[in-house]
């Protein structure tokens, strides 16, 4: 056996070992991809009904929000009407009350001057 034969034998063994290692890595990769594919199929099977339920829930939430919006609009209108009524009552009561207080104060001064005489 010559040095060339030994070098060729070593190269052949190294190539065989690297081929076996590459085949083993590819086998493990195929297994991992199979497991990942199965996992994704299970996720897809469970996700689609969840998304359907979520859509239904969001539709109900939107309906309720529309109702709440209507209620808030009605409350806003009632608040504006109550505010306007309060202003009217305040002006109706305040104006005569101020006049009455003014008359009372004037009458009190007049009575005070009349009593001193």
Structure description:
There is one protein chain. The protein has one domain. It is mainly α. The mean pLDDT is 88. The radius of gyration is 47 Å and the shape is rod-shaped. 97% of the residues lie in helices and 0% in strands.
Concise synopsis of the structure shown:
With 117 residues, this protein is an all-alpha fold. The protein is built from one helix and no strands.
What keywords describe this structure?
rod-shaped; 117 residues; 1 helix; mainly alpha
Topology, pairings included?
Elements lengths: L2 H114 L1
SS element count, helices? 1
Q: List the domain count as a whole number.
A: 1
Structural class given helices, strands, pairing? mainly alpha
Number of strands: 0
Instruction: Specify the biggest β-sheet.
Output: none
Rg: 47 Å
Low-pLDDT residue intervals, each spanning 5 or more residues: none
How many angstroms does the end-to-end distance come to?
A: 156 Å
The shape is: rod-shaped
Helices and strands, in N-to-C order? H
What fraction strand? under 5%
> Level of helix content?
over 70%
Nearest-integer average pLDDT:
88
